[in-house]
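Deviation from plan, reported transparently: zinc ion complex.
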Amino acid sequence: MTAATGYRGRFAPTPSGPLHFGSIVAATGSRADALAAGGEWHLRIDDLDPPRVAPGAIDAILRCLESLGFAWDGPIVYQSRRREAHRAAFDRIRRSAPVYPCTCPRSSIARAGLPGIEGPRYPGTCRGRRTDSDGPSAWRLDVRGAPIAFFDRRLGRYVQDVESATGDFVLWRADDIPSYHLACAVDDVADGFTDIVRGADLAASTPRQILVRRWLGAPEPTWMHLPLVLHPSGEKLSKQTLAAAVDTTRPAAVLRDALAFLGHPVPPALTDAPTSELWSWAAEHWSPGRLPPASDPSGTGA
Ligand SMILES: [Zn+2]
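Because the crystal trials were delayed, the predicted structure below was used instead.
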């Protein structure tokens, strides 16, 4: 089904465990935004890195989403099955972009001691190398140049100097797996997503994905990064902070909580409504202006 509006959105969980409430919030915001726009909403499983896929996690994610009344357009895309497309895109980028092989171990990057937003950033040691004669190499993109800016529907103008944030980042890993940023950008382009709505923890990744998209000659989508659900300690919910899997025995309550977190508390008359009615209400009432404001645009927002 092609939506009249042309809006195409997606939710792309990494199956490293069951969905926690923070993931449900991101999925809810992304689908509500698509429904409100009369658009399509797709599901992609970012199972790029086989060792990180927890056994049973993909089934658990699908069952959880179905129990909460999520429905997606088209077939589910599995990143692990898109390897050839990822490789073709990487080869295409390599033909024109400043991409170079790097064999630096993590320890030498750490020793260089350059601070970055995700730990020590890469100091550019291997820039200028063009062949990978020293065995398996990661392939990095030289990111020197103007800062990357984009407009986010919630965060506003976001600017990041990628070189000082992360340094030259990896496009293709030494273990012959595409990097997350490459795969994510390539698949978003391939599926023609017009609107990328996801958690604010990914805002700092967006400039790297924009760089990949530009080297592919792809148009830029519209971005919106949703507020994060924080652990009482202030940390983002994740498997590491032991976020509990959502309680799918009470699906309507979970969906109501997610909508309330996103600034859309459902009216009391819908307290006992099934998820289908909650989704209808969300499609009708969704308004990004009601999202909690960005008090701390993560990291380098400006
Ligand atoms: Zn290197």
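Residues 21-36 form the longest helix (16 residues). We consider this an acceptable substitute for the interim report.
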